Q: What sequence folds into this?
């Protein structure tokens, strides 16, 4: 065969080598043009230019904010100097007394407090402060902690974007408690009456005070604007985040330095101004606002926002760059070993001009760094490069295929020769025709010689088996013969400790003895007619499967053995994947159901058993925040814990995404099972999952338990009960274990069983609206409230609809139905409504889509200014949803009513936030108000508060005449209730009797007044 191949190569070389050389030359030219012709470099340069442009734009914005807004303190400085002068004149004191005389210090702080608040609001910063000191800054008494106390005032606003009319959003960090009380400002939990400092140059965190103060003393002829200092190491408390500060010295008219004025900017506030997603489309960039104090490209990281690259930096607090530019304004970042490493990280450095020339702090150079990994920045050029390489590879492959085809055509005579040999009778010598090609004719002669030598000694069976390129053996046993023919591979296919090297003909008895010696490896469960399976295990525990097929007739027995290990492994794999969850290696739903059914066939063995439904908490949050790979790791970690049940006579399964089943059986008491469950739950609670970014998450799961046989002896019911118990605990106290309670199930099972009923109600909009009059104290109908009435008997009240919709996250659909159906009826009965308003209940934490609002405006635009939107008490108010609603409310001139005031979430805080046009007093206050002075006092206070703010008061749930009379006497504006009028599907006026009673009550009230 070697001779054959050598001659074949000698023929093909004449054609293949020149073609390959030509193809390689063409490929080299293509590579030189594309890869080394500057195209890739140009793409890389474009990527660097885009990075620079984006960072420059962001730098310009930050620089403008720092210079034009945040550091604009000149107006406040002048005002403070005037206030100081006034206090000194009133106290007949000198400027040298400031910082030393505590009484003068307090008067100054009190007089400038409003100015400090004004600075905080005007500059849109998160903090403003003033610190008073005499010019001898180090000649102060030091306390036991080695600190110097200084009088000042420090006010913070954690959300500068939100500016209420009062100071409720502010906190005092340092300053007198009298100031806090005077201005209605809360004191922070870290509040202290004075500032505390170490001595000068002892603590970098105090530089924000000492540096501008010392600069003003050392540079008496420099204006305060040129002495301002941007600081980065200020810590309010040791446990808090660093703050960025800007401070200027306070210089009196005679040049005396008596303190510093400053602002601070919190880390969270600054991060909002550094949207790292703009650096790169895949959001793997990072903005760092840093300062280079030594002009050595070693930046102190002040603020960082973006994709975490901390593990590649020193410690997350510094960014060390190479001195040499990689591109214009772009440098490589050194890693923890002060080297650049394999995975380059680039930084576009754009300096921020904060200090003028020849000023004390001009050497501290601030810069904005736009940071991105090379693989993200140059991804496009790398992709182009890969595509070019792939194109070259494909071209080479096509060329090789072409060469191969050409060579095959050239060697066609050899193929014809091979076919003739293949079709010849192997038991007879082969005669081949000459084709006048020396190599081929030589090959033909060799084949003829070989054929003549083997024809006499080879049988048909041996030739067939030897031509098969796989582990296969065969034997042929004639029943009347003394010998058996077997191929040399026959016994080598079997794996035994004995080695059988015989092949060809052997004695029948010896053959049968050896074959019977393999019977111990037979697998009877796989045995079928004429087919036998053998299973062998090697010393290294590897399994091997062999199949033997027998074909028997009257004269002989023919057997074939084949190694089917791969086939069996694949079959086992398919069976495993059928029964087990790939992610967790737990039983899947089908296999779990099958095993449980087997267990329930013999219920005596179950004894006391528990069916547990587990549901992982926070999986959606992890998937949404850290990706599905992290979510899969969370599931695997929980599954590994639940596998502990298996050792306690349990069956464990993963049902679906975050749900698991556990069935524990064969115990004498529930307490024994509870101990096992508590043990596993405790281990779960103590397990932390560490994500790729270092974040650690506790494994949490909610679980429901149903008991066999107490709760049920039916598998499906146990599963349903456990599901219900899990549902109950997950919607009350996440992360706990709850046992099934039949009483709760009978009460709330509709939350599970009526899901389809809710879908039916929503899809068919199977609700209608009744309208209950709201009247003024003179008996005139002022408005009607639209009240939902479900058409499906399953829902006894709107509360059932809301509860089920909330549990199924379908409150949006209910909100939409309310708007469209109520307005449709309002339009239909517009003559009945007259000029009355329509009170429409709205779920506070749900908004319609923009398309819905546009459709409402198209259909009912002329009626929207008569709608009063009732904010219900069902959920805690979400400010984002309310603000979005207010946008449409203001556009349509819709008024707002706060429903059920005094219950649920609708209390004083919500009243202050929403500032509604109407307040509806809950019936729990109205009921029995004519007999309860406490209720009357509560209502009087609310009416007084509302009248001052032009808020109308509506009393709902009026069911007694005495209640109505008392409410009128107390001064409510409107009333609503069954005593006045019941709801009806077609709006109706109130009865003449009620009108008369209302009129009399109103007249009597006026007489009293």
A:
């Amino acid at each position: 065969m070697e001779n054959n191949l050598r001659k074949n190569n000698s023929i093909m070389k004449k054609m293949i080598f020149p073609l390959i050389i030509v193809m390689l030359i063409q490929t080299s030219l293509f590579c030189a043009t594309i890869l080394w012709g500057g195209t890739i470099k140009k793409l890389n340069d474009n990527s660097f230019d885009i990075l620079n442009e984006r960072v420059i734009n962001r730098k310009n914005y930050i620089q403008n904010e720092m210079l034009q807004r945040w550091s604009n303190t000149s107006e406040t400085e002048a005002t403070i100097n005037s206030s100081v002068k006034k206090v000194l004149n009133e106290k007949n004191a000198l400027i040298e007394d400031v910082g030393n005389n505590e009484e003068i210090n307090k008067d100054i702080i009190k007089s400038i407090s409003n100015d400090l608040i004004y600075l905080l609001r005007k500059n849109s910063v998160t903090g403003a402060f003033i610190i008073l000191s005499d010019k001898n800054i180090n000649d102060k008494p030091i306390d036991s902690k080695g600190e110097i106390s200084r009088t000042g005032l420090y006010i913070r606003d954690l959300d500068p974007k939100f500016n209420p009319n009062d100071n409720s959003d502010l906190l005092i960090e340092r300053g007198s408690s009298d100031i806090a009380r005077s201005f209605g400002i809360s004191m922070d939990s870290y509040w202290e009456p004075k500032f505390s400092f170490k001595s000068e140059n002892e603590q970098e965190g105090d530089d924000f005070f000492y540096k501008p103060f010392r600069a003003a003393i050392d540079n008496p002829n420099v204006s305060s604007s040129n002495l301002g200092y941007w600081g980065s190491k200020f810590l309010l408390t040791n446990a808090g985040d660093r703050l960025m500060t800007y401070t200027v010295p306070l210089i009196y008219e005679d040049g005396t330095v008596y303190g510093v004025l400053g602002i601070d900017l919190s880390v969270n506030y600054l991060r909002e101004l550094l949207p790292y997603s703009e650096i790169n489309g895949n959001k793997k960039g990072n903005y760092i606002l840093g300062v280079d104090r030594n002009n050595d490209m070693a930046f102190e990281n002040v603020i960082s926002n973006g994709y975490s690259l901390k593990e590649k930096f020193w410690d997350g607090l510094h960014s060390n760059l190479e001195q040499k530019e990689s591109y214009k304004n772009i440098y490589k970042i050194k890693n923890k070993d002060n080297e650049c490493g394999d995975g380059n990280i680039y930084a576009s450095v754009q300096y921020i001009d904060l200090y003028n020339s020849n000023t004390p702090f001009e050497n501290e150079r601030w810069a904005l760094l736009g940071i991105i990994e090379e693989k993200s920045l140059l991804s496009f050029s790398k992709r182009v490069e890969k595509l070019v390489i792939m194109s070259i590879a494909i071209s080479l492959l096509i060329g090789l295929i072409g060469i191969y085809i050409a060579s095959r055509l050239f060697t066609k005579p050899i193929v014809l020769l091979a076919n003739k040999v293949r079709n010849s009778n192997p038991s007879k010598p082969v005669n081949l025709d000459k084709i006048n090609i020396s190599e081929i004719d030589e090959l033909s002669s060799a084949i003829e010689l070989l054929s003549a030598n083997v024809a006499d000694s080879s049988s048909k069976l041996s030739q067939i088996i030897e031509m098969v390129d796989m582990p296969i053996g065969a034997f042929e046993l004639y029943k009347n013969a003394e010998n058996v023919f077997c191929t040399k591979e026959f016994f080598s296919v079997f794996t035994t400790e004995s080695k059988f090297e015989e092949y060809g003909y052997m004695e029948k008895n010896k053959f049968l003895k050896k074959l019977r010696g393999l019977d111990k490896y037979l697998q009877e469960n796989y045995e079928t007619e004429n087919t036998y399976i053998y299973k062998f295990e090697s010393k290294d525990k590897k399994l091997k499967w062999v199949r033997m097929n027998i074909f028997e007739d009257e004269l002989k027995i023919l057997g074939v053995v084949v190694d089917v290990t791969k086939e069996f492994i694949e079959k086992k794999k398919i069976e495993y994947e059928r029964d087990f969850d790939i992610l967790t290696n737990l039983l899947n739903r089908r296999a779990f159901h099958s095993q449980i059914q087997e267990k329930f066939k013999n219920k005596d063995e179950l004894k006391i058993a528990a069916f547990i439904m587990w549901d992982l908490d926070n999986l959606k949050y992890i998937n949404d925040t850290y990706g599905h790979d992290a979510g899969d790791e969370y599931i695997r970690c929980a599954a590994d814990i639940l596998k502990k049940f298996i050792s306690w006579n349990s069956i464990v399964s993963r049902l679906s995404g975050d749900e698991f089943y556990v069935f524990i059986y064969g115990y004498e008491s529930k307490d024994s099972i509870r101990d096992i469950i508590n043990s596993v739950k405790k281990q779960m609670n103590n397990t932390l999952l560490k994500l790729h970014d270092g974040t650690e998450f506790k494994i949490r799961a909610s679980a429901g338990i149903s008991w066999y046989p107490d709760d049920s002896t039916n598998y499906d019911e146990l599963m349903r009960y456990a599901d219900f118990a899990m549902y109950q605990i997950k919607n009350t106290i996440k992360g706990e274990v709850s046992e099934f309670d039949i009483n709760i199930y009978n009460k709330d099972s509709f939350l599970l069983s009526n899901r389809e009923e809710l879908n039916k109600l929503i899809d068919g909009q199977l609700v209608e609206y009744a309208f209950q009059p709201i009247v003024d104290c003179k008996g005139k109908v002022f408005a009607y409230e639209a009240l939902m009435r479900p058409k499906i008997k399953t829902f006894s009240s709107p509360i059932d609809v809301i509860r089920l919709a909330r549990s199924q996250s379908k409150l949006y659909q209910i909100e939409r139905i309310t708007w469209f159906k109520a307005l449709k009826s309002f339009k239909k009965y517009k003559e009945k409504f007259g000029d009355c308003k329509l009170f429409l209940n709205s779920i506070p934490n749900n908004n319609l889509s923009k398309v819905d609002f546009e459709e409402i405006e198209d259909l009912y635009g002329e009626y929207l200014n008569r709608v009063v939107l009732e904010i219900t008490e069902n959920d805690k108010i979400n400010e984002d949803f309310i603000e979005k609603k207010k946008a449409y409310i203001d556009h349509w001139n819709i008024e707002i009513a706060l429903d059920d005031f005094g219950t649920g979430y609708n209390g004083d805080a919500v009243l202050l936030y929403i500032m509604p046009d109407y307040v509806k007093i809950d019936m729990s206050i109205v009921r029995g108000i004519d007999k309860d002075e406490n209720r009357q006092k509560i209502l009087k206070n609310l009416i007084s508060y509302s009248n001052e703010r032009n808020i109308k008061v509506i009393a709902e749930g009026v069911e007694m005449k005495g209640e109505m009379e008392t409410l009128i006497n107390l001064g409510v504006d409107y009333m609503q209730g069954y005593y006045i009028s019941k709801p009806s599907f077609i709006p109706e006026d109130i009865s003449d009797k009620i009108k008369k009673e209302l009129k009399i009550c109103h007249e009597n009230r006026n007489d009293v007044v």
